[in-house]
Amino acid sequence: MNMEKSSTLVVFNGDLDKAIASFIIATGSAAMGNKVTMFFTFWGLNILRKDEYVPVKKSFLENMFGKMMPRGANRLGISKMNMGGIGSKLMKKIMRDKNIATLPELMEMARDLDVQIIACAMSMDVLGITREELIDGIEYAGVATYLAAAEESQVNLFI
Amino acid sequence: MNMEKSSTLVVFNGDLDKAIASFIIATGSAAMGNKVTMFFTFWGLNILRKDEYVPVKKSFLENMFGKMMPRGANRLGISKMNMGGIGSKLMKKIMRDKNIATLPELMEMARDLDVQIIACAMSMDVLGITREELIDGIEYAGVATYLAAAEESQVNLFI
Amino acid sequence: MNMEKSSTLVVFNGDLDKAIASFIIATGSAAMGNKVTMFFTFWGLNILRKDEYVPVKKSFLENMFGKMMPRGANRLGISKMNMGGIGSKLMKKIMRDKNIATLPELMEMARDLDVQIIACAMSMDVLGITREELIDGIEYAGVATYLAAAEESQVNLFI
Fold first, then answer.
1. Rounded CA gap, C7 and C12, in Å?
2. CATH number of A6-158
3. Residue C92: closest CA among chain B residues belongs to which residue?
4. Contact partners of A by the rule of 3+ C-beta pairs under 8 A?
5. Per the confidence metrics, is the pTM higher than 0.80?
6. CB spacing of C125 vs A98 below 8 angstroms
7. Per-residue pLDDT tens digits for C74-111
């Protein structure tokens, strides 16, 4: 058994507010010297999408899902009071005004702190998301990899 | 203290996508040799409802709640982009087309792997759901039973 | 390392049903002799707001957010079938009729059982919520305090 402390987060939701909470916990834990693994699944995968449109051959349904889901950290809505994106814009404005780290900044911080970012391969298949559409520097794995990390972790969360 | 590894999941939400995630984690963990307990509470109880209508004497409010909530694993919506059930149907079609296990199949797998399925007695009381309306082979208990399992578990999640 | 058992909950959502679930788990765990910490962040802060309006000098955006978010445990909606507040009212009526503890009663119980209630300072800043607006007898801290508690806990949940 590994004696190093660790935290493992499942990021299931793709809302801006929950994404921010996930990365604040992840970077906080990594800054305290813990090994941190984030496992992005279902709508959480949208957080990892590249900002720009990536042309990929997809089935009709995959294409439709892809078009309807937000493309990357800058386009996420918030889980309450989103009001068609206005809530999300306001929250980002407030955070900028108060000098609180934005989601892209938190994600960069996570990378600098060696937080392990894993995209759930099965969810990618279900939602028709390909590797080319996701940001660089991440890993791809399934539930067994997640569970192996989770079993050794002191802090396990499903967000 | 029990030296066997274990996972305990609270399944609070009754969305198809979260139910699938719950059972993938539960069956994955059980397949790795862990003891797995799933505690279904509030809307999560809808996952355990029988497919067919079960006539039970209920109060007006209980009846209304019962009618408005989805009856079983085949009728759940998804937590995002459900679009009145279209999103849920599309996700099920995609999963069938790609040969990914459906929720009813995952639930059968969970049973075969001896995953312990507990329905929260207090939530059943609040939502007016009776034992006759839930699938067979499950247990009924309260928060103390959940907590006793959770305290011994390496992986605890609230889904 | 602390040998006392403990549970640590992040309460991110501000829905009545999730708040009730949080406090049932928290009071249940405390009643079993565990140290319990609840960390309220983002919309979860609304659970801790005082019932009455507290005049505080705020920016335009903070004021708007403050007006749109529910003020305290008695005004929360439920996460499903809220129907503009009707669902929430019905659930409260059912719980009263069945003599199940209401959210304010559960919160009082939590206090009696010495459950530690922490409001997330960063989220307060983002949502423009001040100390004067929150109930008495709580603490204020950041993610490092949360993580320190979480790392020592057997049960960690994100609700």
1. 16
2. 3.40.1260.10
3. B126
4. B, C
5. yes
6. yes
7. 999 999 999 999 999 999 999 999 999 999 999 999 99
